[in-house]
Write a structure and sequence with these properties.
Immunoglobulin-like, 21 strands
Length: 324
């Protein structure tokens, strides 16, 4: 899925006889988040600033509900036809989009999603989607030298829906748990999101220097799908740099912390995940932090997520860094 999203630019570099004019590159059919995970969507549409909506099947009313609306980018990625990128981050799906009414948290969930683009006529059309086989097909065809757009058309799903599968949200806590939890650190500015985790192969992430948003949201997401989570902790700091009128500089370190806990008793029901969330008030940092006689210069932040499962195993994510 991540590779497919990164392929977006090459997928639309030129035209083909039957262009893939609108599609979803992430998520793909068959992804397996938990019911509480934020879901990030990316793709392309056929015109600049086109209205786009994400819809989810409501298991209680048997209808598609709109869960997010936004506009596509004005940056043209390709011509003949014109294609424009879009993205929306941190979509949260309520339980009604995962399970029927009355279902237990110990039931697995299934979310049926679609993404649509609105034409100038006002009509909505579904965006094409991929599954894991389509993703493999896409890479094979591009590797064989086929045009990326033609490869996309050949590899897209026949139905424009995305089905996600979630594990039970609760489990019976075991006395021992051989698997470690996974701790994910996530940062969002409302328009984009960055994250890394404690999983093998994960690396530190640098979000780079960002424009000053009104707020940032930092989250420590801890999951243990077979043993439950005892503690999720967000650990980090923001270092605000200020300059005095004589040119001297000072740096002020401000902690960024949050904790979420639950009691875990072997043999009792327990949630498989906990989220520790903290809003970072960028406006306050830039206007109210520096001492009198000094001016704000910038912010540098480092964030980590730490998690402990029901059996007491603790992990820490790789670092997520940002600058403002």
């Amino acid at each position: 899925m991540k590779k497919l999203a990164s392929l977006l630019a090459s997928l639309v570099l030129a035209a083909a006889a039957a262009p893939l004019a609108a599609c979803v590159t992430s998520p793909i059919w068959g992804d397996e988040p938990t019911r509480r995970d934020p879901i990030d969507f990316t793709g392309v549409v056929s015109r600049a600033s086109a209205p786009v909506r994400v819809q989810a099947w409501n298991h209680g009313t048997s209808t598609f509900d709109t869960v997010r609306t936004f506009s596509a980018s004005t940056t043209r990625l390709a011509t003949s036809p014109d294609i424009y990128g879009w993205s929306t981050y941190g979509v949260s799906l309520a339980d009604r989009y995962w399970v029927p009414p009355g279902a237990s948290c110990r039931d697995g969930g299934m979310a049926n999603l679609r993404v649509q683009e609105q034409a100038t006529s006002g009509a909505w059309s579904d965006l094409a989607t991929f599954d894991a086989a389509g993703e493999a097909c896409l890479y094979d065809r591009i590797g064989d030298g086929e045009h990326p757009v033609a490869a996309g058309n050949a590899c897209k799903r026949s139905q424009a829906t995305i089905v996600l599968f979630a594990p039970p949200q609760c489990v019976i806590a075991p006395a021992t748990d051989a698997s470690a939890p996974v701790a994910t650190i996530r940062l969002s500015d409302g328009a984009r999101a960055w994250q890394t985790s404690s999983e093998a192969g994960a690396a530190d992430v640098d979000a780079g220097r960002r424009p000053l948003p009104g707020a940032l949201t930092a989250q420590a997401l801890v999951r243990d799908r077979d043993g439950g989570v005892r503690r999720a902790e967000l650990v980090g700091d923001t270092v605000v740099t200020c300059r005095f009128t004589d040119g001297t500089m000072t740096a002020l370190a401000l902690p960024v912390t949050a904790v979420a806990t639950q009691t875990v008793v072997p043999g009792a029901q327990v949630q498989i995940g906990l989220d520790a969330t903290r809003a970072i008030d960028v406006t306050r940092l830039t206007t109210s932090t520096c001492p009198a006689g000094s001016a704000f210069v910038g912010v540098a932040g480092t964030l980590l997520a730490t998690g402990t499962n029901g059996a007491g195993t603790t992990v820490t994510s790789r670092a997520l860094r940002f600058r403002l």
